[in-house]
Write a structure and sequence with these properties.
The complex is a heterodimer of chains A (69) and B (363). Chain A is mainly alpha-helical and 69 residues long. Chain A contains 2 helices and 1 strand. The model of chain A has no long low-confidence stretch (mean pLDDT 83). The chains are: A mainly alpha (69), B alpha/beta (363). At the A-B interface, helix 1, helix 2 and strand 1 of A face helix 3, strand 7, helix 4 and helix 9 of B. Strand 1 (57-61) of chain A pairs parallel with strand 7 of chain B, so a sheet runs across the interface.
């Protein structure tokens, strides 16, 4: 589950990076700019939601040692 | 009642039983002298203070840190009388005591392990940018662990974190930590990072992280290791053997995971920049349109002006050849038969004259 979250976050970050890179590329044009901006903003919102919702699963291993100090 | 009578062997046996009953395993602090290793297997030395000295024996594999004459140490030992009647301590563990001895031991081992290449930069592995599984080795009761986990939880989520609870100081600490490293390294699905953390402490407290076996276990780990031990100024051999050394447990957490707040802010800032870029482009486009508009207006004006000029020129030409204008300049138009005896009509600006042709001559 955690790995799924992690790869999902990685994917989302990559998608967002790609979307933002368009604005600095030669393909930038005013006609498509607003649509591209909205897409990027939506990706950013989704990413923020994912990051805020992700929780760590912590497991303390109790019986690793036989001896008691 | 008669005093009991023993054979020599019986006496030695009873004496040892009495010692075991009275002392068991005992801790003794003193200074090392006459330290020697026989056949690379057997270690002999004397442990002394200002007024007394006792012989010590141990096996070489039990020596976890370098020891030499003059060092102050604490031994855990069992007192014993040998079959040859010699009193000695059978040493189970030996630990340098006090900053001076600990430092000396540290330097000797550091030099040795450096020569072996255990700390070389080429061995250091990169950490994954966004780990999904990590193993943590620490004491869950220690402040260092609490700090580490708090920062980790604040910065990032979605990870599976397994924590091996161990002693992080004292006699059993080194072996427990080694066992934890081995446990994680034997898992079917290895964690992506192994983190060893403990908070600040005295040189004695942190001495476990200079244990040779522990240092070698860290160097041999298949999983990239991160240490966050003590304070900024502390550097143990475990730190040198790890792939990444963090100065404290807190900075270990900062090193191994990104900060989600920072990421969100970064993307937010980039979006804002791109919005400004769009606005700028719109401004430029508007400006360009205005420029075009001005150019067109100017062009039209220029064309109109040129056209008017042409019109005026044509009008002047037309006026020049207008018969009325020619007549006004004093010329006359003659109509009719231009032959002797013929009748002609002469038109001037103001008159129409009817005349008869008297003679016609070529010029």
């Amino acid at each position: 589950m955690s790995e799924k979250n992690s790869s999902s976050v990685k994917d989302q970050m990559e998608q967002l990076d790609k979307a933002l890179a368009w604005f600095d590329s030669e393909e930038f044009n005013l006609e498509d700019a607003f649509k591209k901006y909205e897409e990027a903003a939506e990706l950013a919102d989704t990413l923020e939601e994912t990051l805020q919702e992700m929780k760590n699963k912590v497991k303390v291993l109790s019986s690793l040692h036989q001896d008691k100090a | 009642m008669e005093n009991p009578k023993f054979s020599v062997s019986q006496f030695v046996e009873i004496a040892n039983q009495t010692l075991e009953y009275a002392f068991g395993s005992i801790l003794i602090e003193g200074e090392v002298s006459s330290f020697k290793i026989n056949q690379t297997k057997y270690i002999f030395f004397d442990l002394k203070d200002e007024t007394a000295s006792v012989s010590c024996f141990m096996m070489a594999f039990q020596l976890r840190v370098p020891v030499e004459d003059g060092m102050r140490v604490v031994v855990r030992a069992v007192p014993k009388i040998t079959n040859w009647g010699k009193f000695s301590l059978t040493v189970q563990s030996i630990t340098p005591k006090g900053e001076g001895s600990i430092k000396k031991s540290y330097q000797i081992l550091k030099e040795r392990l450096t020569k072996e290449g255990l700390f070389s930069e080429e061995r250091k592995r990169k950490l994954p940018e966004v780990p999904s599984r990590i193993g943590v080795i620490s004491s869950v009761q220690a402040a260092g662990y609490v700090d580490f986990m708090k920062i980790l939880q604040d910065r990032w989520g979605g990870m599976a974190i397994e924590v091996a609870h161990v002693q992080v100081q004292g006699e059993v600490a080194a072996d427990q930590i080694i066992r934890a490293i081995e446990f994680f390294n034997q898992q079917e699905e290895l964690p992506e990072i192994l983190v060893l953390v403990r908070g600040g402490g005295s040189a004695d407290d942190l001495a476990v992280f200079n244990d040779e076996k522990l240092v070698r276990a860290i160097a041999a780990s298949r999983i990239p290791t991160v240490t966050g031990i003590g304070h900024e100024i502390d550097e143990s051999l475990a730190d040198l053997a790890a792939d990444v050394k963090a100065s404290t447990p807190t900075s270990a957490a900062q090193l191994i995971v990104p900060d989600k707040k920072y990421i969100i802010n970064q993307f937010s800032s980039e979006l804002k920049n791109n919005l400004n870029k769009i606005k700028l482009s719109i401004d430029r486009a508007e400006q360009a349109l205005q420029n075009i508009d001005s150019k067109i207006s100017l062009k039209i004006e220029q064309e109109l002006s040129r056209s008017f000029d042409k019109y005026n020129t044509y009008m002047r030409l037309i006026n020049n050849v207008n018969p009325n204008n020619v007549l006004a300049r004093g010329y006359a138009v003659i109509r009719g038969e231009i032959e002797r005896g013929g009748n002609i009509e002469i038109e001037t600006k103001k008159e129409l004259i009817i005349a008869e042709v008297k003679n016609v001559r070529k010029k």
